[in-house]
## 1
Amino acid sequence: MPELPEVEVVRRGIAEHAVGRTIAKVEVCHPRAVRRHLPGPADFEGRLASRVLTDACRRGKYLWLTLGGATTGDAIVGHLGMSGQMLVRPVGSADETHLRIRFVFADDGPELRFVDQRTFGGLAVAELVESAFGTVPEPIAHIGRDPLEAGFDASTVVELLRRKQTDVKRALLDQSLISGIGNIYADEALWRAKLHWARPTAKLTRPQATALLTAAAEVMTESLAQGGTSFDALYVNVNGQSGYFSRSLNAYGQAGKPCARCGTEIVREAFMNRSSFFCPRCQPPPRAR
DNA sequence: CCTAACTCCTGCATGC
DNA sequence: TGCATGCAGGAGTTAG
């Protein structure tokens, strides 16, 4: 599940290897990968031919590649979902089993390939629009700033958090409130802030909520410095290499192992049909569940 | 308007 | 061995 740091690693790779190049041809190998491109796969392929990739941008877990050439004002917008990869591969190298979209460039250099085993991810071409937080592709105008953006205002998000009627982990995962956080970094931020996932957001103090946002920014910054979190070959940079942050996780996936702070065994609980990992001593559950 | 359940998908681990 | 089941889960959609 690529989250903000993993997507940023991919963005940097695309910026280095694909930005500035002209697309010669696009091949959609699986229609589901462009299901959010409503005009369909043929339209996706057709409107990208001879366009130039002018920049690689990111907000939260979304990537977009701005387009130049004869026209401007649009971009390829994408989400990696759970298993999506953007790979830079030499022309002629064997197709990946789950190759979904191939970008061939006019310079005959390496291809850009969207590979996605579980097909939760996808790409689309969309217009750029002016939103409250700058110029972004229309489909993601509703998401909030991410904690590593220059314009991220923690005090505003703290007030929004405290106004919500939900539990704190749901709020962390709500991309319209604060973008970029998924299950891994939600659990890590909660562990650092010593908060149980089921704590009601409305009852958080301002210092608690502020500390939680700080923890989220810190853990994602540290992960980025190590190339992101990888459990296996699914989460890789554009060269297919894994990051090392999984060695630094304190809560996520650590069930049965001692808490790095207090030694108590980390516990796994079901949450939203998935998992939450936490230290039952450092992160006591709220009284009323 | 707000919140939460549902749904999409494939590969691997597990159990009988 | 082989089949069924569970699990990984982001976010748009739908229901309440």
## 2
Amino acid sequence: MNVSAALAPRAPHRAPAPQVSREPEGVRLIGMTTHVARDQEVFGEGEPADHVYKVVRGAVRGFRVLSDGRRQICDFYLPGDIFGIERGADHTITAEALTGAILVVARRSNLSHDGSSTMARSLWDLAMIELGRSHDHALTLGRRSAGERVARFLVDMADRIGDGEGVELPMSRQDIADYLGLTIETVSRTLTQLQVSGLIRLTGCRSIHLRNPRALAELCA
Amino acid sequence: MNVSAALAPRAPHRAPAPQVSREPEGVRLIGMTTHVARDQEVFGEGEPADHVYKVVRGAVRGFRVLSDGRRQICDFYLPGDIFGIERGADHTITAEALTGAILVVARRSNLSHDGSSTMARSLWDLAMIELGRSHDHALTLGRRSAGERVARFLVDMADRIGDGEGVELPMSRQDIADYLGLTIETVSRTLTQLQVSGLIRLTGCRSIHLRNPRALAELCA
DNA sequence: CGGCACCTTGAGTATCCTCAAGAGAGGTGG
DNA sequence: CCACCTCTCTTGAGGATACTCAAGGTGCCG
């Protein structure tokens, strides 16, 4: 199911009242709030990019599938993040909810970059934030060991959705592997190794306590 | 030497007449034309991002150096490309000329994104082009073999600066290695292997003839 | 309590890296 | 014009890292 498609046919009188999302330091997005189930597609590669989305709760993965079936996850979108902005008319990646997620959906036309100055600036910031994240991702993937990649990932996640002590990962090992360009086994082994080294503690499969954030950050080089 | 620094102190009457670059389908950049020697720095990481640059001739590498000395090249800028646009006040990467290069230098303030609508749109396109390239780069670096990486690199370069038959690479093996997250030896071996397979022909160290572009493209997956 | 999906661990192997030396190309000076 | 120097690229041998294949464990949900 596609959220855009689901929203479009709705008659105006049936649509929920438009809302303004009030996430901290984010761009306000005027649109409908919708719920997406785990593993449900938000939009697919090649589909018209008519809407943009903001994560209110949950998490989303953006990825491409290569011809041989390998999946490269470009980014994870977490609460407060906006995604779905494209240069051309169509989406170049597929987006799926990692967990049940609540999204605000806005028409792309409502965000025209030659509209108000503040909106243009916000959009610009968004694009540059995404560009920065993409650069960092490339930096993570270039000639780095598995340990460095996983450490970077954990530090990044802790920054974005951590509580200062640790972080509750919304994604599976396979998702992490596809993001970091590793295999699921290597991710698992590396996490175990980080635990043995005393840098982290796995309080659950997806619940990670950072015992030594400084050392972890130094691993990131 | 830093180009920005070199330009700033010049008295107006000594400055060359501002020119408008007329590259195909690019953004017009109003500014001075300058020459940068091989391996000379255009700007450094952490320096104020007061100017943006357009490549008229030659090529530029944008990179970061990790704490242990490894260098990750984020992108190569080729004729027609604009670089140096940043989100914040400072540059997050260093830019150096690969070869002797001719650049158009424009003040960042002349490109304000809340200026004219057409300029805003052009800037937006630029940012989105760079974002697309960055995504592709991440896709190149994620769990791919050396062969796939090098093939992608060659196809990309042939698209951007090739003459339909082949491509004259402006960068060294070390630059390619730092871009693809490989070692210089692996790049060299992989190129040799592609030649043995009949996909390419090395007519010179940096002069590559694509004998079988279709097969090469299929390698990219 | 059972089933299923996810995660972990192990053994063996392939790929790529490291270290080392040799070959080409380009530039300079005699 | 040639010899020489330097820088870059290529090639080789050995070793480390991460992958593949396989089995066993853990936790969650019905």
